[in-house]
Amino acid sequence: FPSQLPLHDDSYIARDYEKEKAIALLGECGYGPDKPYDIHVRTSQDPRYTKQFEVMQSQLAEVGVNMTNEKMESGAWFMDVLQAQDYEFNLIPTTIAYLDCDERYALFHSGEPQNNFGVSDPDLDKALEINRTSTDLEERRKASADIIRIMDEKAYVIPLYGSMRGIAYNNAFQGVAPTPGYTNSLNDRLL
Question: In 29-136, where does DSSP find H-type helix?
Fold first, then answer.
């Protein structure tokens, strides 16, 4: 989770990409060059989805995963796959619009209509609720760290990338002060 979040846990260390470890773990499960792990993914025909799946397909092939992509009309994909939670994994382009973990409440709290991931985790629910309702900054900081830790340990989502948006302006303008939330726009992609 981005360090721009005000309650970001500075002790959090993101996972490194370990291609050889991925190959070894698949090998422990009986998969390898002669027996790849096959996965079929149904995705929206929207290029924001298909292009990223093409990149993932190539990268997964490097570790022994054979991924096939079925492109669907966007509305059908949303209803039949995403809302029905009928997938092994999926890509959901989303952004962090607010610099706070509270935005994750709607996406990951049990029973929320936007929880298309199907996450149901009492510990995560508790941390999301504390982060949402507490007026104690330290209690919210701990809850935010718990949210990040739980989501990382259980791999509910895997941030694929973040992009930055720049703002250009002429130095002759006086009093221009871009807000960090916009200049460091936090676009991520979640599996």
Answer: 47-61, 74-77, 104-108, 122-133
